[in-house]
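Task: sequence design from structure.
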């Protein structure tokens, strides 16, 4: 004789939530009543930012990264393709990325920045990569550059 677990209100609620979630996901991912598939994202929309994984980011950008740093605080790889070259740096936590960007500001430059990752390269190339991996372009000001001043009002 097999022991049977009693049917509780908790298990009924759990089954109902699972069934509703499954139905919602099936409905959201399928075609409408006319058989029309859901619309594709617009080309102008930026994709969701890639995960903080050099190999994944490199694959999305069409390269195989050559890993040059593999430390606890960051991993860094270089991509070289006919389109150009760029550096992909990933971090185990946002705090390491912020510290790295603060240090990189000393040199200036433009970076494509996502959650726990940054890509360094020429701005035109970064704009192209952004369509593949998401993120935001951030221009870091060289600490030796003259400060930006607003024009003095003339009397």
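Answer:
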């Amino acid at each position: 004789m097999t022991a049977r677990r009693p049917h509780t209100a908790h298990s009924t609620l759990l089954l109902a939530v699972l069934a509703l979630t499954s139905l919602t996901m099936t409905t959201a991912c399928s075609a409408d009543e006319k058989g029309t598939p859901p619309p594709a994202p617009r080309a102008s929309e930026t994709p969701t930012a890639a995960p903080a994984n050099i190999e994944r980011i490199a694959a999305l950008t069409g390269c195989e990264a050559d890993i040059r740093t593999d430390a606890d605080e960051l991993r860094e790889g270089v991509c070289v393709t006919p389109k150009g070259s760029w550096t992909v740096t990933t971090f185990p936590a946002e705090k390491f990325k912020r510290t790295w960007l603060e240090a990189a500001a000393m040199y200036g430059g433009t970076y494509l920045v996502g959650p726990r990752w940054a890509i360094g390269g020429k701005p035109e190339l970064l704009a192209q990569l952004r369509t593949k991996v998401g993120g935001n372009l951030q221009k870091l000001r060289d600490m030796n550059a003259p400060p930006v001043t607003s024009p003095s009002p003339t009397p």
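The CA atoms of residues 74 and 91 lie 5 Å apart.
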